[in-house]
Amino acid sequence: MSALVGVSARRKRTDRLGRGLLLLATLIALVPLLAVLYTLIQKGGGAISTSFFTTDPNGRFFGDPGGVKSAIVGTTLMVALAAALAVPFGIGVALYMVEYGKGTRFASVVRYFVDVMTGVPSVVFGLFIYILLVVTKVGGGFTAWKGSVALALLMLPVVTRSAEVVLLLVPDALRETALALGSPRWKVILRIVLPTALPGLVTGSLLAVARAAGETAPLLFTAFGLSNTSLNLGNQMNSLPIQIFNDVQKAQDRLVERAWGAALTLVVMILVLTLVARLIQRRSSTA
Amino acid sequence: MEAGSINARGDRSVLERSPLAKLPDQATKWFLTGLAALILVIIAFFFIRLFSEAQPAFAKFGYFGFTFTDNWDVSSNIYGALPLLVGTLITATVALVIGVPVAVATALYVTELCPHRVRGPLTIMVELLAAVPSVVYGLWGVFVLIPKLRPAEQWLSDHFGFLPFVGGNVAGPSYFIAGVILAIMILPIVSAISREVMSTVPVEHKEAALALGATRWEMIRIAVLPYSRSGITGAAMLGLGRAIGETIAVTLVIGNAPAIGKTVFSQGYTLAAVVANEFNEAASVPIHRAALIAAGLVLFVLTLLVNAGARFFVARAERLGGKKGRVGAPGSAA
Prior knowledge:
- The complex is a heterodimer.
- Chain A is mainly alpha-helical.
- Chain A contains eleven helices and no strands.
- In chain A, 76% of the residues lie in helices and 0% in strands.
- The longest helix of chain A has 39 residues, at 9-47.
- Chain B is flat.
């Protein structure tokens, strides 16, 4: 690069201009992240106090509107149940595609439809569960576990595709060694394939959980929002995204402040999950 | 004596497992196959149920009539989804026009130009944009972006009024604001996939260009961009799919006016937003509910088409790149 002999001034200028534009665009791409984080910390930080985490929204029009305890509890419970549904299911489907169905037509059809699911908007999943479970009043109208089912549908393709990628990375030599020693296939899967792939599976699942935790639309149609803290998944349940959504639309200063605080809480929760996922991934790939 | 005859258990070889020991293996296989089949069942069921629940709306207004009539009037129970469809397309277009060039430029900068040390941090920062939930972007849009961008929008509107769809008074919430938010939201995925596609450009091509005396910029133009064009197209279409289906952020900043706005700075509505927003009031009115479900179905079909196109382009880039399984898996980049 040092010997740019014979490069005309015009070409040099274009080069510099082009590179400058790319750098500029990259900086522009970083602006929204910094701006969002800055506002979150500035406005959300002010809302956060002990009572913010220990009281429920009380619906009072004047005075203290209450905190977001029920929303944090609800988000945690619903996302945990969704993960309990989607992670085994997704890893199971990935196991089928990698261990049994490799190269078969059926496996590629399944993979295609998993991709189709990835593209389905979350609001449509919400509608589906609404039609399927809420309208038919299976175990009551709006309940938290239905929200979990909707979130699980959303997580399923993410878990499946990331698990498939990780399972494919397990060397065939390991499988062959175990099979040659006489282990049955299921034991190979359980004792060799899954433990080898574990860090990657955990990373993929955590990223899926992080994605589901921020989803609002599917919960709008299913879990609705009860503002009291509830530990019963058969009841309506509050959640951070729904709390934020409702507070924004009220456009009342104290509620908006609570929305910022809830948003900061939610983003921190998601960032921690993402970070843990990436750390596990980094550790396993350097080990 | 052959091995089998030592075996007192009949005509099986000693090496063969007893039927009982084979059972768990068969069970595992059928169980996992069953899970995979269940996915297909869920999706089929999904489609059929949405379709049958939307049927009243289609029966009353016709498939074509529902989708392409410009009249969404809740109070008189007339539902034509054209304003929503147009709103979805306008916001998605704004998102692509703003988001894709920035995303591609970022990908180019990260893969071709930036110092090795900042590559990792830059990549992570762009990907963190995907970690911020939709509702938080909505909150930020309402209280930061709308007031901050308003003067700029008015200036654009005043000075570029000769362009189509520009001009007039700037509403607070608008197609444009929704488009900007969507552009931010699709940036990480478009950038991630573009980056992966660009990393499949053979080093030989780039070195050849440089050896012929090309500057860095010329190398990008003649070696990197042509090679990754189809992958970038796929990435943009995946972004489009995301933009079309995005709900909550858009609901908060688009103004929710069920009419086709005259300019990009007017208020509007999108398919996804109408479902989220009118759902509560619709629960008790069967035809309204059916119309919302039908809107969801139109949205679903639209994203299916767009994503199928995206997969086609990304798969072609994959074949060109020759690295199977590296590019793609749209979910993994999220």
